[in-house]
Amino acid sequence: MTKLLGGVRPYTLNAAGIPLSALLALPHGGAPRSTILAIHGRGMRAAYWDSFVPLATSLGHAVLAVDRPGYGDSANLLPEGQTLAGQAETLHAALKEHAAEHEIGAGVFLLGHSDGGKVALHTAATDGGVPLLGLDASGVGYRYNPQALHFPSTLGGGATKLNWGPLNLYPRGTFQASRTLLAPTPPRESAETLRWPGQYEELAPRVRVPVRLTFAEHEAWWHLDAPTLSAMTARLTAAPSVTVDHLPAAGHNISLGHTAPAYHLRVLTFLEDCLAAARA
Are 165 and 218 in contact (CB under 8 A)? Predict the structure, then answer.
């Protein structure tokens, strides 16, 4: 298996017969303290998480960044993709396969961005065979802003303001480099966008792990007023804790921007809290 820079290597998961391409990074010098399942957003690929990996592995965690069903190696087998709930079921099957062959530490921590955050919430609300520690989602809210009603399927399509915010929030060269991350959005995934508020209302009470929600200062996809966020968190009735964080000087694609290190540190701090709760 070919190794890439930073200890990341290509990896293939067998999810009940569905091959999922992924990137796997293991900590140096011992078994992982936990395994972080990193789930990319709409029209992206697993490499969205590249800047997160070195910090996570340096703190003793394994990172499994997966190309969601309908992306990467599974695109030919699933040309229409899967529903968000179907993706969660497939990811649970993938985690079982991974845990059978690798140490996962205290459990799996879900890290999702945008539509990947939706899939992470579905995954946390679905019973699986691998213990879940917590869930950190960025760029996923409850109710859409009116300007988001056209729902472009990729990072192009006129969605620059929604997907990025002010361009000076990102390092020079980000937009050219990000072209390698782009992938077509499977039709089934796109078709579900309008149904998200209702889906969230149904699944939120079934999430039984600590939840942290992060919103960029220049997040444009979602209503972020206090009543809407309160309504969102109030539906997470079974979660042991729910935290809402706001990240200054950041756009929707947080992990590609200047403030990515700050966000990633907050993610890993929350993971420490989840590990402490699991031990207790």
Answer: yes
Dump pLDDT digits (tens) for 27-46.
988 899 999 999 999 999 99
The edge-to-edge listing of strands for the beta sheet with 108-113 is: 8-15, 18-25, 62-66, 35-39, 108-113, 132-138, 211-216, 242-247
Mapping DSSP to helix (H, G, I), strand (E, B) and coil, where does residue 80 land? Answer: coil
Determine contact, residues 140/115, Cβ cutoff 8 Å.
Answer: yes
What gap in Å lies between CA 132 and CA 179, rounded to an integer?
32
Residue 158: Cβ-neighbour burial (10 angstroms; 0-12, 13-18, 19+): exposed
DSSP 3-state of 132: strand
Per-residue b/e over 121-140, b at no fewer than 16 CB within 10 Å?
bbbbbbebebebbbbbbbbb
**Is residue 40 within 8 Å of 46, Cβ to Cβ?**
yes
Residues 6+ apart with CB under 8 A from 263: 138, 214, 247, 250, 254, 255
pTM of the model: 0.94
User: Which helix (H) or strand (E) element contains residue 133?
Assistant: strand 132-138
pLDDT, tens digit (0-9, with 9 covering 90-100), for 191-235: 888 899 999 999 999 999 999 999 999 999 999 999 999 999 999
Going 104 to 106 to 108 to 110, the CA torsion angle's sign is negative
List, for residues 243-267, the tens digit of each pLDDT value: 999 999 999 999 999 999 999 999 9
